[in-house]
Every structure is written in C-alpha cells, then in structure tokens.
C-alpha cells in the first residue's frame, strides 16, 4: 500500500498563516478543495482581506481508503477535512515496484468551477510527458527570443538562468476564460478576443522596487506584450480600488516596500512606445505621484504629504500594527523624486504642461537632502536641520535596505546634477573606491550570512536594488572604461553556477531582478534612468558573447531583429575600442533606444586595455542637460 499526504492547513513559505482549509474526496479519483491564507504584508496593508485559492486534483489510480488529520491527530475513514493545521491521507494499492501515481491539478483564484475549467482546457487527455514537452517548447520559445552565441559556457548558463528567472516571477492570477479575483470574493472579467480568449492576463506580483533597472527594461526589449499585460492588470486594479498597487495578491495590497514605483513603471512603458493599455493609466500614474490624500500602507507612499508639502520626507519613526518601525524618509525622498520625473516625462508626451512642470519641480527635491559639508545625502529632521551624529554607513537609519553612502548615488534621473553637486574628481574617486572595496567581498556575495540584507552596511550591495545602477555611472562621469570593467567583474564574481553561489550568498532576487540585471549586462545595454525619460536611451558596456540576436515584436517596434556582435581577439577582452550601429560609428557611450528598435546591428570592437578616449565626448542624457 502507498500513502499520499495532502497538507493544506499548514503555512507554506512566505504565504502567511492558513486561516481556512478544506478538501473533499469527490470520488475515488478526484479531490477538490479551498485554501485561504493571511500573508504577513496583508496584515498591515489590507487587514480585512484574505487570499484564497481553489484546487481540483485528479488521480491516475483509485483511492482505496482515506483519512483526515489535524497536526498529529489522524481520523480514519474520513473523506472531508475543514479547518486549519489539517489535511488528508489517501491510500492506494501498489501492484509493482516503482509504480507511478500521476496527479493532474487545476488551480483557480476565483472558483471551483474555474479550477475545473482550467484543468480541462490545459491538461485533459494529455499525458505527463505531453505536458512536459509542451512546457519545454513554450519555455524554449520564450528563451529563444534572445539567442546568444560564443562566449564562455558558464556565462551562457548564467544568462539563460537569469532570463528564466526574469520570466518566472509573476504568478498568473486569471483563468482561461478571463476571470480574475477581486476583493470580497468578487470576480472580474477580462475582455475576450474574437477567438474567445482573454485579451491579456492578470498577475499576482511582488512590488517593482528596482525592477525598472532590469525587469522592465528586459521585458520592454523582448517581451513587450508581457509588460503590457502587467501594466493593464494594474490599471484594472486602480479602477477597482482607487490606487495602483505595488505588490498584489488576488487584488489585495501586499506592498512590502511602500515606495510604489508603479507610476514610474507605467510611464516608462508608455515612454518606450508600448501604449496598447488603457490610456486612463495616465490618470492613475498622476494620482500616484501627486495625491497624498488617502495614502496608507496598502497603496504605498504613506508619507507623500511630507514630500509634496515640505519638499522632503523627514527623519521620523513610523510604527505599524505588527510592531515594525519604519524610518525611511531619506530614501523615500530620493525615490519619490525619481518617480516624479518619470511621470512628468509622460506628462510631457501627453502635452500636459502644468503637470509636467509640477512633476519636474518635484523631481529636484532630492537636492534638499544633499549635505554640502559631507557631500552625501543626509537625513533631515522635521525642523529642516540635518541629523547630528551622522554615520553614513549605518543601515536602516533613514534609508530602506541600505545606508546613506549607497543612497547618495540614487539620483538615476539626473546623474549629471549629482556629479556637479559632489564634484567631478570626488565623484569618480568615491565611485571607484566603492567598487574596489566591494570586489573584496564579491560585491556582497562573499559572506556566510545567507539572507537578503547581508551587505546593506557596506559601501556597495549588489544583492539588493538600491545599488544596481552604480556600475553604469562611470558612463556619466567621463570614465566609461570603468563601467566596462566593473560590470564584467560583478558578473564574474557575484554571479555563479554552483548551488550556493548561484546568485550570491545573501541576496534579494525579488522575482528575477538580479537575473534580469545579468541579462542586460551580458548584452551590453542598460539604462540608469530606467526608461523614465520621454526619449529613453541605453548606456553601453561590452557584451559577453560573440553574437546576440534579439527578436523585436513588430506589433510595438519598427524593426524585426536587433543584432549585437563583438569582435575581439581574446575571450577575456572587456574594453570597448569602438562601436558601430549599422556600420555608422558611434562615438558616445550611449545610444537612443528608439534607434535600436528600428533593427540592425550594433557591433563592438573590444580589446584587453581601456580606450580612455572612446565615449567621453558627450555624456548620456540626464534631466539637467535635457532639451525642452
């Protein structure tokens, strides 16, 4: 006899405690049930809501007996269980050694009927091997949108692992008929196309904190329809609940970071030419940056009123219901300035000049925290004075998941102004010293501390989002060869292919963000501004492979394929000697994104030594050097 234990009532990972779980053996080859959880972030973001899921599982062998359990208490001859800490045990006859029990499971966040419908449409009449082959074919189609040739084998493994993670993180929340979960057990319905299929998908998703530096750039490049779906599902939630989400589970707010960068993400999607979502998203993005009334821990930017009224968020403790204490006013000031810039650029494209001017003004508020004495971003008290006993290496002290040193670099929309404030020489001196120090610790992965915050008290922490653009800042400061050096060094030393150091020890992958960073670094394209400019650009570094072929979706872009090639005499060559775009020489260390989207070949000639005169004539676009 063989036994199958189905545990539905105990906590699984970060899903939170189970508040209700039930399962019923419908017949000798089918079990159905429902699980409801109360995630940790929901407890203070959306405390009156819960996250539920329905399931239907079909078994390849008949059940000969069943029992229910609650923890260690087992009740025999039971075909139903309901409560918490519970589950079922199903017994089967085993005739041969190694006999396989096959289970087909349909899931739905909306109803048991839709769980059955999903199961029927997706797997009915198919064997395990058929499903596995179909999944493999679908993944190959997705991964082959970017094909790499040549280079080191380890780099190819890192590349496709990162690409896989970048596409894996969001959980599909809608059913095959377009139904998706709303709060209070209501069901939303996505419009259907002429074939009866949903026009887009809804996703459960973590927040987008830092995702504009990797995930959204990658999606916009090779998976624009995926990004469009993500944006539209967020706009749907805005219409239902009044705000964009920054972390969502079944239309409930599960926002753990509070900065709500969804306005920036929506604007950047529009700015790159992906515009097939509901145009009312502009209204949502404006509200996200300009409206402080009604903000809370669920919809994020709970302290936006300080930013709007005082032009900075003060150094001040905020305690929430579970006892956590926030003091992130300084990092919020920098982040809100960045997201204001992005939505302001969308306002510019929408010919909404009043909001463009207002948001452009807000985008400069980061300067209110710049301390001319230390030349660092320094927290301010409510009375407008800088805090005393300032330790720029102290983490969590005014800065979320980082310290003042790390966040001083956090002016992605206007590196040119930051360089002016700090001073050219000191800016480069500090930036290089930071990476030389970080190299000794494998950029945050050279530690035995296995958690997401293992290097937040260092000068640099690649394992978390606030530092992810730093290596590309040398392109702005007149030393692009150092961008080339340190991007490659991070890729070689932080990332690995063994189980323990696959993405470093102590890192915050956050649904594929670090994997997507590697992908963008490996193809030699990255935008420090996160596509927040009305005309986005890519800053350049040396690609890792001999040839990279990127399929361009003609529904969104003019070209069909972007080819990136490198010419080098040695696989270890990492310094750009010259670049051409469709045989025309590129003298800058950056290129406008819309030019690349017309298709063609970007060719890099690499060498073993820095070419200190290449790419230094005109720095990449920055807010303070933009033309009206």
Task: Write up what this structure looks like.
Helix content is 30%, strand content 20%. The chain contains 17 helices and 28 strands. The strands form 9 sheets. The protein has a 6-stranded mixed sheet with strand order 10-23-24-28-25-26, covered by helices on one side. Strands 7-2-3-4-9 form a 5-stranded antiparallel sheet. The protein has a 4-stranded antiparallel sheet with strand order 1-8-5-6, with no helix packed on it. A hairpin with a 2-residue loop joins strand 5 and strand 6. The longest helix is centred in the middle third of the chain and has 21 residues, at 329-349. It is globular.
Percentage of residues in strands: 15-25%
- Please give the number of β-strands: 28
Per DSSP, the total helix count is: 17
Spatial ordering of strands, largest sheet: 10-23-24-28-25-26
Low-confidence stretches: none
- Structural class computed from helices and strand pairing: alpha+beta
User: Helical amount among residues, as a percent range?
Assistant: 25-40%
Question: Helices, strands, pairings?
Answer:
Elements: E1 2-7, E2 17-27, E3 30-38, H1 42-45, E4 51-59, E5 65-70, E6 73-76, E7 80-83, E8 86-92, E9 103-108, H2 112-123, H3 128-143, E10 146-149, H4 153-168, E11 171-172, E12 179-181, E13 187-189, E14 203-204, H5 215-222, H6 224-241, E15 248-249, E16 252-253, H7 262-271, H8 281-290, H9 304-310, E17 318-319, E18 325-326, H10 329-349, H11 353-362, E19 370-371, E20 376-377, H12 404-408, H13 415-422, H14 424-440, H15 480-493, H16 513-523, E21 525-526, E22 537-540, E23 547-551, E24 561-567, E25 575-581, E26 584-586, E27 590-592, H17 593-596, E28 600-607
Parallel strand pairs: 24-28
Antiparallel strand pairs: 1-8, 2-3, 2-7, 3-4, 4-9, 5-6, 5-8, 10-23, 11-14, 12-13, 15-16, 17-18, 19-20, 21-22, 22-27, 23-24, 25-26, 25-28
Helix pairs in contact: 4-16, 5-6, 6-7, 7-8, 7-10, 8-10, 10-11
């Amino acid at each position: 006899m063989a036994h199958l234990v189905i545990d539905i009532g105990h906590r699984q990972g970060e899903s939170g405690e189970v508040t209700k779980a039930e399962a019923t053996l419908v017949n000798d080859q089918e079990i159905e049930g429902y699980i409801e959880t109360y995630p940790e972030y929901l407890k203070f973001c959306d405390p009156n809501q819960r996250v539920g899921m329905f399931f239907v599982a079909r078994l390849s062998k008949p059940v000969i007996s069943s029992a229910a359990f609650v923890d260690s208490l087992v009740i025999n001859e039971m075909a139903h269980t309901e409560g918490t800490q519970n589950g079922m045990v199903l017994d089967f006859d085993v005739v041969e050694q190694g006999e396989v029990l096959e289970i087909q499971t349909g899931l739905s966040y909306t109803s048991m009927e839709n769980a059955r419908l999903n199961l029927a449409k997706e797997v009915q009449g198919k064997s395990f091997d058929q499903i596995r082959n179909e999944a493999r074919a679908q993944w190959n189609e997705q991964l082959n949108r970017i094909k790499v040739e040549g280079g080191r084998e380890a780099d190819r493994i890192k590349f496709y692992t990162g690409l896989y993670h970048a596409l894996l993180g969001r959980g599909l929340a809608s059913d095959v008929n377009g139904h998706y979960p709303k709060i209070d057990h209501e069901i939303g319905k996505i419009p259907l196309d002429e074939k009866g299929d949903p026009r887009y998908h809804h996703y459960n998703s973590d927040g987008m904190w830092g995702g504009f530096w990797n995930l959204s750039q990658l999606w916009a490049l090779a998976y624009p329809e995926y990004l469009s779906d993500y944006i539209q599902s967020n706009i749907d939630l805005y219409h239902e609940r009044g705000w964009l989400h920054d972390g969502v589970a079944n239309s409930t707010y599960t926002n753990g970071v509070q900065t709500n960068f969804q306005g920036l993400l929506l604007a950047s999607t529009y700015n790159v030419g992906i515009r097939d979502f509901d145009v009312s998203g502009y209204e949502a993005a404006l509200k996200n940056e300009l409206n402080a009334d009604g903000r809370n821990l669920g919809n994020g930017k709970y302290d936006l009123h300080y930013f709007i009224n005082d032009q900075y968020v003060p150094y001040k403790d905020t305690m929430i219901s579970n006892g956590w204490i926030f003091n992130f006013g300084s990092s919020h000031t920098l982040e809100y300035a960045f997201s204001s810039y992005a939505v302001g650029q969308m306002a510019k494209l929408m010919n909404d000049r009043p909001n463009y001017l207002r948001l452009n003004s807000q985008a400069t508020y980061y300067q209110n925290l710049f301390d001319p004495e230390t030349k660092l971003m320094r927290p301010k008290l409510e009375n407008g004075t800088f805090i005393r006993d300032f330790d720029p290496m102290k983490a969590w002290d005014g800065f979320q998941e980082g310290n003042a040193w790390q966040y001083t670099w956090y002016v992605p929309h206007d590196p040119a102004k930051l360089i002016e404030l700090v001073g050219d020489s000191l800016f480069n001196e500090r930036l290089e010293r930071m990476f030389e120090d970080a190299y000794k610790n494998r950029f945050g992965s050279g530690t035995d501390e296995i958690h997401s915050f293992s290097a937040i008290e260092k000068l640099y922490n690649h394992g978390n989002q606030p530092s992810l653009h730093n290596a590309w800042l040398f392109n702005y400061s007149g030393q692009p060869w150092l961008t080339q050096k340190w991007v490659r060094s991070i890729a070689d030393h932080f990332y690995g292919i063994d189980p323990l150091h696959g993405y470093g020890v102590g890192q915050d992958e956050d649904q594929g963000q670090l994997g997507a960073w590697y992908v963008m670094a490996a193809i030699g394209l990255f935008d420090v501004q996160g596509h927040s400019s009305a005309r986005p650009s890519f800053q350049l570094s040396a690609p890792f492979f001999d040839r990279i072929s990127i399929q361009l979706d003609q529904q969104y872009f003019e070209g069909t394929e972007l080819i990136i090639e490198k010419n080098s005499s040695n696989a270890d060559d990492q310094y750009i000697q010259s670049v051409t775009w469709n045989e025309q020489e590129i003298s800058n260390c950056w290129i406008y994104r819309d030019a690349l989207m017309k298709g063609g070949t970007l060719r890099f000639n690499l060498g073993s030594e820095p070419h200190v005169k290449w790419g230094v004539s005109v720095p990449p676009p920055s807010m303070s050097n933009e033309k009206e």
